[in-house]
Amino acid sequence: MLIERVWAANEYRNFHYLIACPESGEALAVDPLEWRRCLDVARARGWSITQILNTHEHRDHTGGNPGLVAATGCKVLAHAEAASRIGGVDRGLKKGDTIRVGRTVELECLDTPGHTMAHICLLAHNEPALFSGDTLFNAGAGNCHSSGRPDLLFETFTQQLARLPEATRLYPGHEYLVRNLEFSLDREPGNAAAAALLERCRGGDPSAAPVTTLGEEKAINSFFRLQNPELIARLRAKFPDIGSQPDAKTVFLKLRELRNKW
Ligand SMILES: [Zn+2]
Ligand SMILES: [Zn+2]
Question: Whole-angstrom Cα distance, residue 103 to residue 96?
């Protein structure tokens, strides 16, 4: 499996991905808003884009579909429940479905509601990798402003994402690393791993941002650190009513609420 991250260099700070079969040169494009950039990268590698995967229905993920379909004739894949809102979807996906790219690549569809109610994360098993759309970002979590539900995002984090292998490499839909690390440190000033990564990445070129693993995320991402004593103590200072031993869901929901205004 070959993975190419394409930095959109737009105001939304999108990351697009090409996932290609090294034997056949067929490629799948994840959320290719700036589709010409994706096409240029594919051509430079000698790949042909045969499929688009939209993680969810938001325009900053689907807006490139018509252009890329017109240029390549590729098929569009998306969550079955989001298909009517996206339009032009050739294959509606559900939990557990497999997407094949060429002869060698197999990707599993995870049903990961929270940011929206119909959101797919793609999981590669052989070389563990997660394409997480707007569900999980480097050092952060997706918002729930547009028809999402924070309680379901909590379920997705704890029941699915936190249980994946720690070596799983993370490929999110946007580049928000520095801002999210600043939030992590605001919540947990003693987090040395977050401080070290912020030091390394602040002011850097987003197209060269590091690819983290889920193991690293568990060290730097507040939304995976729901039992951390410092984080809980600082949360209690803002929300005294959560008590001395708030459950993980309460911590997650309060973090999400704080991040909305932070
Ligand atoms: Zn979104
Ligand atoms: Zn987005």
Answer: 19
Tokens read off for 39: 């096409």
CA of 134 to the centre of ligand 1 (A): 5
Contact residues for 171 (Cβ-Cβ < 8 A; gap 6+): 3, 5, 15, 17, 30, 129, 130, 131, 132, 211
DSSP 117: S
Q: Is 227 helix (H, G, I), strand (E, B) or coil?
A: coil
pLDDT digit string, tens, across residues 23-80: 999 999 999 999 999 999 999 999 999 999 999 999 999 999 999 999 999 999 999 9
DSSP 157: I
Query: By the 8 A CB rule, do 169 and 213 touch?
Result: yes
Q: How far is the CA of 56 from the centre of ligand 1 (A)?
A: 7
Q: Is the pTM of this model over 0.90?
A: yes
